TrEMBL record:
Organism: Sphingomonas carotinifaciens
Bilayer topology: Multi-pass membrane protein
Gene3D superfamilies: Cation efflux protein transmembrane domain (1.20.1510.10), Cation efflux protein, cytoplasmic domain (3.30.70.1350)
Matching InterPro entries: Cation_efflux (IPR002524), Cation_efflux_CTD_sf (IPR036837), Cation_efflux_TM (IPR058533), Cation_efflux_TMD_sf (IPR027469), SLC30A9 (IPR040177)
Pfam families: Cation_efflux
Recorded superkingdom: Bacteria
Main location: membrane
Subcellular location: Membrane
GO biological process, one term: zinc ion transport
Transmembrane residue ranges: 14-33, 82-102, 122-144, 165-187, 199-217
PANTHER family: HUEL-CATION TRANSPORTER, PROTON-COUPLED ZINC ANTIPORTER SLC30A9, MITOCHONDRIAL
CC per GO annotation: membrane
UniProt keywords, alphabetically: Membrane, Transmembrane, Transmembrane helix, Transport
Protein name: Cation diffusion facilitator family transporter
Length: 319
C-alpha cells in the first residue's frame, strides 16, 4: 500500500485506532493496579478495556473483509460483513464485559479482599480517564461531522456505519465505569467496607449490559437490512419522477448493502407509446443521473410497471 493510501486508511479509521491505542495501555495499567490493591472494580475495568480492545480489532477486521469486491456468490459485495462483526461486538460486551464484571462484583461482595493503599488505583484511574476522554473526544468529533444537523440519538439510529457509534457507546460507558470505579474505591476506604468496591463492579457490569443491548439492537437492524435515509429516497424518487417519459413512480425501495453502498429497486409507469429500444437508452441515462446525484448507489434496478399493477409497499410479489 502506498504512503498516501496508508494515511487515508488511518484517517478513515482514526476513531478505531485511537480507541484501540487507549484501551491497550489502560488495560495493562488497570490489571497492574488490581493486582497490587486487590480492587474488584479495577479488575473489572481491566477486563472492560481488554474487551473494548478486542472489539476495535474485530471492527477493523470487519471493515477489511467488507471491502472485498463482489463475486458470483455475493454479487452485491461483502459490505454487510461489517454489520455481522458489529453484532458479535455487542455479544462480547454483554457476555464477557458485563458478565465478568457482575460475577467479580458478586464474588467480591461475598468474599471481600482486605483493604490496601488505594493510591495506585487513583493514579491509574486519572490516567485512564484522560486517555479515555481523548478517545471519546475523537469519537464525538468524528460522529458530529457525520451526523450534521441531525439529533444525536436519531443520527445513531439512522447511522449505517456501526464503527463510529460503537466506539462512541464504548467510550461513554468506559468513562462512566471509571467514575463508578473511583467512587467505589474511595467509598470502600472511607467507610472501611470493601464490599462497596464489589457493588461498584456490579454497577459497571449493568452499564455494559445496557450498552450491549442497545448496540445489538442497532446492529441487528443493519444486519437484516435497512433502507437509505428518507432524504436520499426522496431524491431518487424526485429524479425519476422528473423524467417526461415516466407518468408515475410506483415505489422506490432501497437497502444498504454496506455503509457506503445502496441498492435501489424502482417501479415506474412508463408512457404507453415508448418503444423498447428507446426505453433502454433512457433508463441507462437515468441510472447515470441517479449515480451522479447519489454516489452511494451501487446497484439500480428500474422496472417498467403499470401503476394499477404495482404491489403496495410491503406486499408479497406474485410468484
Amino acid at each position: 500500500m502506498s504512503d498516501t493510501g496508508l494515511t487515508a486508511r488511518i484517517r478513515e479509521n482514526i476513531v478505531l485506532f485511537g480507541a484501540l491505542a487507549a484501551n491497550l495501555g489502560i488495560g495493562i495499567a488497570k490489571f497492574v493496579a488490581a493486582g497490587i490493591t486487590g480492587s474488584s472494580s479495577m479488575l473489572t475495568e481491566g477486563v472492560h478495556s481488554v474487551v473494548d480492545s478486542g472489539n476495535q480489532v474485530l471492527l477493523l477486521y470487519g471493515q477489511k473483509k467488507a471491502r472485498r469486491a463482489p463475486d458470483i456468490v455475493h454479487p452485491f459485495g461483502y459490505g454487510r460483513e461489517l454489520y455481522f462483526w458489529a453484532f458479535v461486538v455487542a455479544i462480547l460486551i454483554f457476555a464477557i464485559g458485563a458478565g465478568v464484571s457482575i460475577y467479580e462484583g458478586v464474588r467480591h461482595i461475598r468474599t471481600p479482599e482486605p483493604l490496601r493503599d488505594p493510591t495506585v488505583n487513583y493514579i491509574v484511574l486519572v490516567i485512564a480517564f484522560v486517555l479515555e476522554g481523548a478517545s471519546w473526544t475523537i469519537a464525538v468529533r468524528e460522529f458530529a461531522k457525520a451526523k450534521g444537523d441531525t439529533g444525536w440519538w436519531r443520527a445513531i439510529h439512522q447511522s449505517k456505519d456501526p464503527a463510529g457509534f460503537i466506539v462512541l457507546f464504548e467510550d461513554s460507558a468506559a468513562l462512566a465505569g471509571l467514575v463508578i470505579a473511583g467512587i467505589g474505591v474511595w467509598a470502600s476506604h472511607a467507610y472501611a467496607d470493601p464490599r462497596i468496591d464489589g457493588v461498584a463492579s456490579v454497577l459497571i457490569g449493568l452499564i455494559l449490559a445496557a450498552v450491549a443491548v442497545l448496540l445489538a439492537r442497532e446492529a441487528k437492524g443493519l444486519l437484516i437490512g435497512e433502507r437509505a435515509d428518507p432524504v436520499t429516497v426522496e431524491r431518487i424518487r424526485a429524479l425519476v419522477d422528473a423524467q417526461p417519459w415516466i407518468t408515475h413512480v410506483n415505489h422506490v425501495r432501497t437497502v444498504h448493502t454496506a455503509p457506503d453502498s445502496i441498492f435501489a429497486a424502482i417501479s415506474a409507469d412508463f408512457v404507453d407509446d415508448l418503444p423498447m429500444g428507446e426505453a433502454e437508452t433512457l433508463i441507462e441515462h437515468l441510472e447515470d443521473d441517479l449515480r451522479a446525484a447519489v454516489p452511494m448507489l451501487s446497484s439500480i434496478y428500474i422496472r417498467p410497471e403499470k401503476r394499477e399493477n404495482a404491489p403496495p409497499l410491503g406486499a408479497r410479489p406474485a410468484i
